Amino acid sequence: MWRVIGLNAYPGVENMAIDEAVSELVAGGRSPPTIRFYRWSPGAVTIGCFQCINDEVDLDACRRLGVDFVRRRTGGGAVYHDPIGEVTYCVITPESYFSKDIRESYREICSYIISGLAKLGISAAFRPINDVIVDNRKISGSAQMRRHGVLTQHGTILYGLDRKTMFSVLKPSKLKLSDKPVDSFEAGVTCVKELCGVSIEQLYDALLHGFTDGKEWQFGTLTENELALAKDAAWKYDSYEWNFSR
Amino acid sequence: MEEKVPGGKLARLSIKTDGSPRVVLSGDFFIYPEEGIFIIEDVLSGLGGWEPLEEIETALMGAVNNNGIELVGLDVYVIARLYKGAMHVESNRA
Question: Are residues A138 and A188 in contact, defined by beta-carbon separation less than 8 angstroms?
Fold first, then answer.
Protein backbone atom coordinates (compact mmCIF):
# COMPACT_ATOMS: atom_id res chain seq x y z
CA MET A 1 0.00 0.00 0.00
CA TRP A 2 1.46 3.34 -1.07
CA ARG A 3 1.33 6.35 1.19
CA VAL A 4 0.71 9.70 -0.48
CA ILE A 5 1.76 12.82 1.37
CA GLY A 6 -0.20 15.77 0.02
CA LEU A 7 1.08 19.12 -1.11
CA ASN A 8 2.82 21.15 1.61
CA ALA A 9 5.39 23.94 1.44
CA TYR A 10 8.72 23.88 3.30
CA PRO A 11 12.10 25.63 3.06
CA GLY A 12 14.66 23.90 0.81
CA VAL A 13 16.73 22.47 3.66
CA GLU A 14 13.66 20.83 5.19
CA ASN A 15 12.43 19.46 1.88
CA MET A 16 15.78 17.75 1.30
CA ALA A 17 15.97 16.51 4.88
CA ILE A 18 12.47 15.04 4.73
CA ASP A 19 13.22 13.15 1.50
CA GLU A 20 16.37 11.72 3.10
CA ALA A 21 14.58 10.77 6.34
CA VAL A 22 11.75 8.98 4.54
CA SER A 23 14.30 7.16 2.32
CA GLU A 24 16.18 5.90 5.38
CA LEU A 25 13.02 4.61 7.00
CA VAL A 26 11.72 2.99 3.81
CA ALA A 27 15.12 1.24 3.67
CA GLY A 28 14.59 -0.13 7.15
CA GLY A 29 11.03 -1.21 6.35
CA ARG A 30 9.72 1.27 8.92
CA SER A 31 7.97 3.52 6.41
CA PRO A 32 5.80 2.50 3.46
CA PRO A 33 6.55 3.25 -0.17
CA THR A 34 5.79 6.93 -0.42
CA ILE A 35 4.82 9.51 -2.99
CA ARG A 36 5.28 12.96 -1.59
CA PHE A 37 4.20 16.23 -3.20
CA TYR A 38 5.64 19.51 -2.01
CA ARG A 39 6.37 23.14 -2.71
CA TRP A 40 9.05 25.57 -1.57
CA SER A 41 8.72 28.48 0.81
CA PRO A 42 10.74 30.59 0.29
CA GLY A 43 11.80 29.86 -3.28
CA ALA A 44 15.05 27.94 -3.54
CA VAL A 45 17.75 26.80 -5.91
CA THR A 46 18.83 23.19 -5.59
CA ILE A 47 21.99 21.91 -7.21
CA GLY A 48 22.90 18.37 -8.12
CA CYS A 49 25.22 16.55 -5.74
CA PHE A 50 28.07 16.61 -8.28
CA GLN A 51 27.79 20.27 -9.22
CA CYS A 52 30.02 23.12 -8.07
CA ILE A 53 27.71 25.69 -6.52
CA ASN A 54 29.78 28.66 -7.66
CA ASP A 55 29.67 27.45 -11.27
CA GLU A 56 25.89 27.04 -11.30
CA VAL A 57 24.36 29.59 -8.97
CA ASP A 58 24.57 33.37 -8.67
CA LEU A 59 24.70 33.43 -4.89
CA ASP A 60 24.56 37.24 -4.70
CA ALA A 61 21.35 37.19 -6.76
CA CYS A 62 19.92 34.52 -4.44
CA ARG A 63 20.68 36.64 -1.39
CA ARG A 64 19.28 39.76 -3.06
CA LEU A 65 16.07 38.00 -4.11
CA GLY A 66 15.58 36.01 -0.90
CA VAL A 67 16.08 32.68 -2.65
CA ASP A 68 17.53 29.82 -0.60
CA PHE A 69 20.13 27.44 -2.03
CA VAL A 70 20.83 23.85 -1.09
CA ARG A 71 22.73 20.88 -2.53
CA ARG A 72 20.62 17.80 -3.23
CA ARG A 73 21.89 14.30 -2.56
CA THR A 74 20.77 13.35 -6.08
CA GLY A 75 22.73 14.15 -9.22
CA GLY A 76 21.42 16.21 -12.11
CA GLY A 77 21.36 19.93 -12.67
CA ALA A 78 20.59 23.14 -10.83
CA VAL A 79 16.89 23.98 -10.51
CA TYR A 80 15.08 27.12 -9.44
CA HIS A 81 12.03 26.18 -7.37
CA ASP A 82 9.58 29.05 -7.54
CA PRO A 83 7.35 29.33 -4.45
CA ILE A 84 4.17 29.67 -6.52
CA GLY A 85 5.27 28.25 -9.86
CA GLU A 86 5.86 24.55 -9.44
CA VAL A 87 4.86 21.26 -7.88
CA THR A 88 7.64 18.95 -6.74
CA TYR A 89 7.20 15.23 -6.30
CA CYS A 90 9.30 12.56 -4.62
CA VAL A 91 8.86 8.82 -5.09
CA ILE A 92 10.56 6.76 -2.37
CA THR A 93 10.22 3.03 -2.71
CA PRO A 94 12.08 -0.28 -2.63
CA GLU A 95 14.17 -0.53 -5.80
CA SER A 96 12.30 -3.68 -6.76
CA TYR A 97 9.18 -1.64 -7.58
CA PHE A 98 10.86 -0.26 -10.69
CA SER A 99 13.18 -1.41 -13.44
CA LYS A 100 16.75 -2.28 -12.45
CA ASP A 101 17.81 -0.26 -15.47
CA ILE A 102 18.19 3.29 -14.16
CA ARG A 103 17.35 4.94 -17.50
CA GLU A 104 14.24 2.80 -17.83
CA SER A 105 13.13 3.62 -14.30
CA TYR A 106 13.34 7.34 -15.14
CA ARG A 107 11.02 6.63 -18.05
CA GLU A 108 8.63 4.69 -15.79
CA ILE A 109 8.30 7.39 -13.16
CA CYS A 110 8.19 10.22 -15.71
CA SER A 111 5.26 8.41 -17.35
CA TYR A 112 3.20 9.38 -14.26
CA ILE A 113 3.92 13.04 -14.99
CA ILE A 114 3.02 12.59 -18.66
CA SER A 115 -0.18 10.86 -17.66
CA GLY A 116 -1.05 13.64 -15.18
CA LEU A 117 -0.43 16.34 -17.77
CA ALA A 118 -2.56 14.41 -20.28
CA LYS A 119 -5.50 14.77 -17.88
CA LEU A 120 -5.16 18.53 -18.41
CA GLY A 121 -5.06 18.10 -22.18
CA ILE A 122 -1.29 18.64 -22.36
CA SER A 123 0.54 16.27 -24.68
CA ALA A 124 3.96 15.71 -23.11
CA ALA A 125 6.75 13.27 -23.92
CA PHE A 126 9.73 11.73 -22.14
CA ARG A 127 13.14 13.05 -23.24
CA PRO A 128 15.94 10.83 -21.97
CA ILE A 129 17.64 10.88 -19.60
CA ASN A 130 15.36 12.58 -17.10
CA ASP A 131 13.17 15.26 -18.69
CA VAL A 132 9.56 15.63 -19.72
CA ILE A 133 8.97 17.99 -22.63
CA VAL A 134 6.12 19.66 -24.46
CA ASP A 135 6.91 20.71 -28.04
CA ASN A 136 10.63 20.28 -27.37
CA ARG A 137 10.51 22.54 -24.33
CA LYS A 138 11.21 21.23 -20.85
CA ILE A 139 8.31 21.22 -18.40
CA SER A 140 9.71 18.75 -15.88
CA GLY A 141 13.08 17.42 -14.73
CA SER A 142 13.88 14.61 -12.31
CA ALA A 143 16.82 13.16 -10.40
CA GLN A 144 17.14 9.70 -8.90
CA MET A 145 19.38 7.97 -6.41
CA ARG A 146 19.49 4.42 -5.12
CA ARG A 147 20.78 3.51 -1.69
CA HIS A 148 20.27 0.58 0.68
CA GLY A 149 17.79 -0.98 -1.74
CA VAL A 150 15.66 2.16 -1.92
CA LEU A 151 14.98 4.25 -5.00
CA THR A 152 14.44 7.95 -4.36
CA GLN A 153 13.43 10.10 -7.29
CA HIS A 154 12.38 13.69 -6.99
CA GLY A 155 11.49 16.17 -9.68
CA THR A 156 9.62 19.29 -10.55
CA ILE A 157 6.64 20.09 -12.74
CA LEU A 158 6.58 23.71 -13.83
CA TYR A 159 3.25 25.45 -13.29
CA GLY A 160 4.21 29.09 -13.80
CA LEU A 161 7.48 30.54 -15.00
CA ASP A 162 9.32 33.49 -13.56
CA ARG A 163 12.07 33.41 -16.18
CA LYS A 164 13.62 36.63 -14.90
CA THR A 165 14.24 35.22 -11.43
CA MET A 166 15.09 31.76 -12.77
CA PHE A 167 17.87 33.03 -14.99
CA SER A 168 19.04 35.61 -12.44
CA VAL A 169 19.83 32.89 -9.92
CA LEU A 170 20.96 30.14 -12.31
CA LYS A 171 24.10 30.35 -14.44
CA PRO A 172 23.70 27.52 -16.99
CA SER A 173 26.58 26.90 -19.38
CA LYS A 174 25.77 27.74 -23.03
CA LEU A 175 27.21 24.32 -23.90
CA LYS A 176 24.04 22.77 -22.50
CA LEU A 177 22.12 24.16 -25.46
CA SER A 178 24.40 22.44 -28.00
CA ASP A 179 22.12 19.42 -28.51
CA LYS A 180 18.81 21.19 -27.89
CA PRO A 181 16.52 22.49 -30.64
CA VAL A 182 16.28 25.96 -29.04
CA ASP A 183 18.66 28.87 -29.05
CA SER A 184 18.16 30.16 -25.51
CA PHE A 185 17.47 28.76 -22.06
CA GLU A 186 14.45 31.05 -21.77
CA ALA A 187 12.93 29.45 -24.89
CA GLY A 188 13.85 25.95 -23.75
CA VAL A 189 11.35 25.79 -20.90
CA THR A 190 7.59 25.96 -20.69
CA CYS A 191 4.98 25.60 -17.97
CA VAL A 192 1.40 24.46 -17.45
CA LYS A 193 0.09 28.02 -17.19
CA GLU A 194 1.44 28.82 -20.65
CA LEU A 195 -0.32 25.76 -22.08
CA CYS A 196 -3.73 25.79 -20.41
CA GLY A 197 -5.69 27.87 -17.93
CA VAL A 198 -5.81 25.55 -14.93
CA SER A 199 -5.01 26.43 -11.33
CA ILE A 200 -2.04 24.91 -9.48
CA GLU A 201 -4.56 22.93 -7.41
CA GLN A 202 -5.93 21.42 -10.62
CA LEU A 203 -2.38 20.56 -11.71
CA TYR A 204 -1.75 18.88 -8.36
CA ASP A 205 -5.00 16.92 -8.66
CA ALA A 206 -4.07 15.76 -12.17
CA LEU A 207 -0.59 14.74 -10.99
CA LEU A 208 -2.06 12.93 -8.01
CA HIS A 209 -4.09 10.82 -10.43
CA GLY A 210 -1.13 10.36 -12.77
CA PHE A 211 1.06 9.07 -9.94
CA THR A 212 -1.55 6.86 -8.25
CA ASP A 213 -3.72 5.41 -11.03
CA GLY A 214 -3.65 1.62 -10.76
CA LYS A 215 -2.00 1.66 -7.32
CA GLU A 216 -3.37 0.84 -3.90
CA TRP A 217 -2.78 3.99 -1.90
CA GLN A 218 -3.98 6.21 0.89
CA PHE A 219 -3.18 9.69 2.11
CA GLY A 220 -0.80 9.80 5.06
CA THR A 221 1.39 12.21 6.97
CA LEU A 222 5.02 12.19 8.05
CA THR A 223 5.54 9.99 11.12
CA GLU A 224 7.19 11.09 14.35
CA ASN A 225 10.23 9.00 13.39
CA GLU A 226 10.47 10.66 9.99
CA LEU A 227 10.15 14.14 11.48
CA ALA A 228 12.83 13.40 14.08
CA LEU A 229 15.19 11.96 11.47
CA ALA A 230 14.51 14.92 9.17
CA LYS A 231 15.40 17.31 11.99
CA ASP A 232 18.73 15.49 12.39
CA ALA A 233 19.38 15.52 8.63
CA ALA A 234 18.60 19.22 8.26
CA TRP A 235 21.92 20.30 9.78
CA LYS A 236 23.77 18.71 6.87
CA TYR A 237 21.70 20.48 4.22
CA ASP A 238 22.14 23.76 6.05
CA SER A 239 25.92 23.43 6.38
CA TYR A 240 28.66 25.17 4.42
CA GLU A 241 30.57 21.88 4.24
CA TRP A 242 27.71 20.20 2.37
CA ASN A 243 26.61 23.02 0.11
CA PHE A 244 30.12 24.13 -0.87
CA SER A 245 31.66 20.65 -0.93
CA ARG A 246 32.55 21.06 -4.60
CA MET B 1 37.58 22.50 -18.85
CA GLU B 2 34.01 21.55 -19.75
CA GLU B 3 32.37 19.27 -22.27
CA LYS B 4 28.79 18.34 -23.09
CA VAL B 5 28.32 14.63 -23.57
CA PRO B 6 26.23 14.17 -26.75
CA GLY B 7 22.75 13.12 -25.60
CA GLY B 8 24.07 13.31 -22.06
CA LYS B 9 25.14 15.83 -19.50
CA LEU B 10 27.68 18.58 -18.93
CA ALA B 11 30.93 17.69 -17.21
CA ARG B 12 33.65 19.96 -15.85
CA LEU B 13 37.08 19.04 -14.57
CA SER B 14 39.59 21.18 -12.75
CA ILE B 15 42.89 20.63 -10.98
CA LYS B 16 43.07 22.09 -7.50
CA THR B 17 46.64 23.04 -6.70
CA ASP B 18 46.23 24.30 -3.14
CA GLY B 19 48.30 21.60 -1.46
CA SER B 20 48.92 18.40 -3.38
CA PRO B 21 47.27 18.49 -6.84
CA ARG B 22 43.74 17.15 -6.75
CA VAL B 23 41.29 16.49 -9.56
CA VAL B 24 37.72 17.77 -9.11
CA LEU B 25 35.01 16.50 -11.45
CA SER B 26 31.67 18.26 -11.47
CA GLY B 27 28.54 18.57 -13.56
CA ASP B 28 24.89 17.62 -13.93
CA PHE B 29 25.53 13.94 -14.68
CA PHE B 30 24.59 10.97 -12.52
CA ILE B 31 26.98 8.49 -10.92
CA TYR B 32 25.66 5.41 -9.11
CA PRO B 33 26.55 4.97 -6.33
CA GLU B 34 27.32 8.65 -5.70
CA GLU B 35 30.58 7.83 -3.88
CA GLY B 36 31.90 6.61 -7.24
CA ILE B 37 32.95 10.17 -8.03
CA PHE B 38 35.62 10.02 -5.31
CA ILE B 39 37.03 6.82 -6.80
CA ILE B 40 37.19 8.44 -10.26
CA GLU B 41 38.81 11.58 -8.86
CA ASP B 42 41.34 9.48 -6.91
CA VAL B 43 42.31 7.52 -10.02
CA LEU B 44 42.94 10.74 -11.94
CA SER B 45 44.72 12.42 -9.03
CA GLY B 46 47.10 9.46 -8.98
CA LEU B 47 48.11 9.89 -12.63
CA GLY B 48 50.98 12.06 -13.83
CA GLY B 49 49.18 13.77 -16.69
CA TRP B 50 51.62 12.59 -19.35
CA GLU B 51 49.91 9.25 -19.92
CA PRO B 52 48.35 8.71 -23.36
CA LEU B 53 44.60 9.14 -23.58
CA GLU B 54 44.02 5.40 -24.05
CA GLU B 55 45.87 4.64 -20.83
CA ILE B 56 43.75 7.12 -18.90
CA GLU B 57 40.58 5.65 -20.39
CA THR B 58 41.71 2.15 -19.43
CA ALA B 59 42.46 3.23 -15.85
CA LEU B 60 39.04 4.86 -15.57
CA MET B 61 37.26 1.91 -17.16
CA GLY B 62 38.98 -0.43 -14.68
CA ALA B 63 37.93 1.69 -11.71
CA VAL B 64 34.34 1.92 -12.95
CA ASN B 65 34.02 -1.80 -13.65
CA ASN B 66 35.84 -3.01 -10.54
CA ASN B 67 33.74 -0.84 -8.24
CA GLY B 68 30.35 -1.43 -9.83
CA ILE B 69 30.03 2.24 -10.78
CA GLU B 70 27.40 3.25 -13.31
CA LEU B 71 27.76 6.50 -15.20
CA VAL B 72 24.59 8.05 -16.62
CA GLY B 73 24.92 11.00 -18.97
CA LEU B 74 28.70 10.76 -18.70
CA ASP B 75 31.40 8.40 -19.97
CA VAL B 76 35.05 7.64 -19.29
CA TYR B 77 36.12 9.01 -22.68
CA VAL B 78 34.83 12.48 -21.86
CA ILE B 79 36.40 12.35 -18.39
CA ALA B 80 39.75 11.31 -19.88
CA ARG B 81 39.65 14.12 -22.47
CA LEU B 82 38.75 16.69 -19.81
CA TYR B 83 41.61 15.47 -17.64
CA LYS B 84 44.13 15.70 -20.50
CA GLY B 85 42.90 19.19 -21.32
CA ALA B 86 43.07 20.37 -17.72
CA MET B 87 46.56 18.93 -17.27
CA HIS B 88 47.67 20.66 -20.47
CA VAL B 89 46.42 24.00 -19.13
CA GLU B 90 48.15 23.35 -15.80
CA SER B 91 51.49 22.46 -17.43
CA ASN B 92 51.38 25.64 -19.55
CA ARG B 93 50.65 27.66 -16.44
CA ALA B 94 53.61 26.17 -14.53
Answer: yes
H or E stretch at B63: helix B53-66
ipTM over 0.90: yes
Domains of chain A by start residue, with CATH: 2-243 (3.30.930.10)
Of B6, B10, B72, the CB nearest to A129: B72
Q: Is the pLDDT confidence value at A63 over 80? A: yes
Which chain A residues in 200-239 lie under 8 Å from chain B, judged by CB atoms? none
The answer to whether residue B53 scores a pLDDT higher than 90 is yes
User: What distance in Å separates residue A70's CA from the closest CA in chain B?
Assistant: 15
The third-level CATH classification (topology) of the domain covering B2-93 is Enolase-like; domain 1 (3.30.390)
Contact between chains at A176 and B26 (C-beta distance less than 8 A): no
Q: What is the 3-state secondary structure (H, E, C) of A114-160?
A: HHHHHCCCCCCEEECCCEEEECCEEEEEEEEEEECCEEEEEEEEECC
pTM (predicted TM-score): 0.95
